[in-house]
Amino acid sequence: MDVCAGGIEREYRRRTWKALGPLALAMVPAFISAMRMTTDHFTPDWLMYAYGGFLVVGIGYWCLVMTRGRTLADQHGITVQRALTRRTLSWHEIYDIRVQFIPKAAGNARKCLAHAYTDDGRRTLLPHVDDWQLPNPVAEIEALRLAATEQWGAVWATRPEVEERILLAAAQRKRRERISVVVVITLVVGLMAWGVVYISSH
Questions:
Q1: Which of 96, 125, 99, 127 is nearest to 112 (CA)?
Q2: Is 72 helix (H, G, I), strand (E, B) or coil?
Q3: Could you tell me the pTM of the whole model?
């Protein structure tokens, strides 16, 4: 985190490659599987190319997130720079800034993330405002909230109607996550079944 003169600007960006460990662990099974596919005469070429392309795109996107992603807080609001997009939330749009702890996070995985919430209940992830890049994200968010109040006049007040929207948005995200898991499992099972049929027919 970088703080400019007078505390007027705060920039959160990648300071370490601590995320490299979890990524490597996640990619080891993928690379082993890819190597097996290249020596498996029953695997069609298009599937190997598709699998390799998926790995390249995934790793490339992760590198963009780590290198380009950043969060900037200044007198105008909070600017979120993602891998390919950029968005600015003015202070009057921001309802709250909160740290979310990730349950059952194991090993070197991130254990907390920070989000900016708007009046409609939606949240925006703040890149690199997490325990990978900061020693104490909770204290940092509290300091940011205080600076926003003193320097930029931000007001932090709980409103029941907004809290209800936040809970509704969280429930909708949970439903989408469950649907995504079901879709992925269905695709994997379907691919495995197709592989069994393909191999048995050759």
A1: 99
A2: strand
A3: 0.74
